[in-house]
Amino acid sequence: MTSFPSQVPEYKVLPNVVARIIEHLTDRWLQTRQFITSEEGIGVLKCGLAYLLGSLATFIPVVAALLGPQEGKHIVATITVYFHPARSKGSMYKALICATLAFLYAAFISLTSMYITIYFHQRRMIELGHALVLIIFVGLGFGFLAWTKQRMSDPLVNVACSLASLALIVVLTKEGAIQRGSVSLAKVSQVLKMLLMGIGATMTVSFLVFPVSAQKKLRSNLAVATRSMAIMQSTITEAFLRRTQHDFQGFDYTGASTRLKKAHGELDKLLYETKLEQYVAGWERAHCHEEKLVQWAHGIVHTTGALHSSALLAFETLKRPKFADHPLAGPNANASTATRNEQQSATFAADVPILQAVDLGMLETNASGNVQPVSGQLDRVSDGLVPEGSLVTELFDSFVDRLGPSMRSLTLTLMNISAEIPLGLSLDNRVAMSPGSAATLTQAIEEYREAQKEAFGRLYREKCDMSIDTFEKEAYFKEVAAICAHFSYSLLKYGEQLGELLTILTDFQVATAGYHRKKSWSWIKFWRRDPSRSQYLARSNARLDPRPSLTEIAPGYHTELPGASSFERPSRLQPFRDTISRHIWRTLSFVRKDETIFASKVGVGAALFALPSFLSFTRPIYLYWKGEWGLVSYMLVCSMTIGASNTTGYARFLGTCIGALCSILVWSIAGSNAFGLALLGFVMAICTFYVSLLKGQGPLGRFIMLTYNLSVLYAFSLSQSSADEDPDERSGNNPDITKITLHRVAAVLSGCIWGIIVTRGVWPIRARKKLKNTLKLVWLRLGRIWESDPLARRITNPGGAALYMTPEDRRKMQSLLSDLESLRVAARYEIELNAPFPDTAYGKIIQHTQSIVDDLHALDLQLQGIPPSEQQLSLLRYTSPERQNLAGQISHLLGAIASSIAYACPPTHVDLSKAKHSRDRFLATIFMYRSGDETSSSALEETYSLLYTYVLVIDQIIGKMAGILVNVSRLSTGLEEGVVG
């Protein structure tokens, strides 16, 4: 029998459909309401409101009359699109400064060019005057704007340069005074009025409608960064204790990492905006404390990366032990010597000044009853019950059983304090910090130190009972102890830096108490210097590391022959010649820079594009097809690299087409009705700012509105003028929106195409090449850092701090790594016929390079301890030749990798085996020193712990370089080749 599916009655289907529709509409309404009440939604609404106010300069006859009879009143609305109000008050102050400088520059160039043409016109040489205007004021003037954009690399500066170019283009090429050889201040005054109206509308909306404080955003970002780092360090610590990396792929860790990256990337920008707000409001005394907070955030972000790096080092070591593989680990190894040395070191275990713990009672309980002694585990191995890989794991678990409670307790304390710190509060919302937070944290850190000292001492006292009869067992124990100490010390430094934050906040509260009654604007007195501010800057600029910077040359390289003056008397003209040579060299180096080359070709391209406006037989064509807007588009499209130009060119091309279609649609709906056009323009602004601000498609959204303004607002102005004005763009007495739009689209697209031609055809600057050069620079810097050998400086200056990377070096290195990411994004859009861009390979190279930087910072955390003892200095001197040889090998490898990617050659000449051999020799030297050390000390004494960690980090860096070599080989040959060594 055939069975038919049961059918739902119709009277039940309809309610289900209606319920689903209602549920869908309800969800959509909740999402819309959540967006409208969010910071992003309010920002989009403010932008639409500012655009509405800016468009009133075209729609209201009284306001339009103030701007004069000249066309171009839609520029007021265009200014509100570029200087939008979805920014903080500090950013608006900066926008005002940039706009003022842009107008002053445009006015200077415009008036000077007018007087130049008048001078030559009076002498009947106006053609020469036009040539000078094209070369100097168009070529050099626009080239300077392009150079400024690239040099400053600031969005607001870019907008100011775009507005300056817009004003210059209108005056120099369209207005006609320069072509006639006369002076006309009407257009200059109109540009000033439009600038004031546009900036005024934007600032009014920004300050009166849900104003945003940069200081509050700065504090909010600091709070987000602090809590994200607390989650990350808690996850890293727990993963370390459980010997698993899966937590790093969890939702909590990846989410916290994403939030940290976003918040940390905005700190410097928000700090500058906060500075402007505080200086205007008279709170300049509070700014130095804000700077300290941002500097602290930069430092602890690096510490978090170092903590993550030390955990990865532990995981890698547990998978593949390294110490037991060096040449002394043979069957003839002197086991009796190792046993004797460890018995001696056990008597010194109580003096080991290693880290800390919180719960001593829990630690005692675990150590006495719940933990199997290490000797018992080693005995099982000696009986052949546990394979070699399990030995390291069980040794690590023995350490973790004793160190775990103290680590977890400290981590919990750090999490609680991070959640309680009132970082998100500004001067207007002052809440006193909990007075017990600093004491709680200090107590937790001290207890952590004592518990760690006791835990390591107990482990080494138990080690006296172990049957260490092979070199491998001794090496495994030292290796596990080193990675535990390395991680513990990184965790300790994180806690100490959190304590520094509490100190900064306490000082901030004291310094800003009663700030409403102590406002001052002493910064206006620029001729006076604030002594306290100068002392703060001097302390901030003081370096922890006395070594010269990466760009300085060692004094020893400047040699002088003794008695040279007796053979040759220096010429009196020699100082003058040296000065001239130095200036020539600096000039040539400036000319060779990419920014100068970019500015030169932009200036030449602008002069060629503007040339038809100065020729009598081509000027009508230039004006008919609105060539001035093509030149504006050209200035907007030109970018430093081919990839960036392709990206912006495509976005602007698409934006122009969409804007043209929207213009025709809006005009067909509303016609010349001012109310309808204003309402539809507001809707257009809301949609385009949503695309620009929330979707990250700024060029696309701005060019949609630019084309809309050029078409619709101009058509409305034309409809309000006399019938004999611009007859070519009318259909009878009414504006022809199709023809108007066609002229604007043709002008904008011609400028975009010309910009891409100039960028790609004239001295092209490829993002791929800049990416390779930046990678080369990063690796050469890293090689220079390795050659510096701060361990050697500890010998010559035991009391001074010697680091691999100073804070300034870390800042420069992170800036270069950020440039690598932006160049990698730009390089994706460079079309090459030979091969697609190897994005994955470059991503892995940048990731490995970032890991090497984190490893160096983790080593710096170890170097920031107490000054070394005499015995420690003796070990450093004993191992100095091997250590310098190893550092030289690492530096040489980094240089060889840099040359491989710079010259696009396979890295077949790079041999990692030499570095591994130097590492083995260095490790063997340490063991030889220990075998002859009669005074003896614990294997975890600071010197041995530091050098053991040094070897482990070196091995990890060699592994990262092997990964880099594999990907560099893929870049140069396209094949997955093996690495020599």
UniProtKB/TrEMBL annotation:
Q: What is the recorded membrane topology of this protein?
A: Multi-pass membrane protein
Q: Which residues form the Integral membrane bound transporter domain?
A: 618-758
Q: Where in the cell is it found?
A: Membrane
Keywords on this record? Membrane, Transmembrane, Transmembrane helix
* InterPro entries in the cross-refs: IVT-Associated, Memb_transporter_dom
Q: Which residues cross the membrane?
A: 48-67, 95-116, 128-148, 155-172, 192-212, 650-669, 675-693, 700-720, 740-763
Q: Which Pfam families match?
A: FUSC_2
Q: What is its main location?
A: membrane
- One Gene Ontology cellular component: membrane
Record bears the keyword Membrane: yes
Q: Which PANTHER family match?
A: 60S RIBOSOMAL PROTEIN L19, DUF2421 DOMAIN-CONTAINING PROTEIN
The protein depicted here goes by the name Fusaric acid resistance protein-like-domain-containing protein
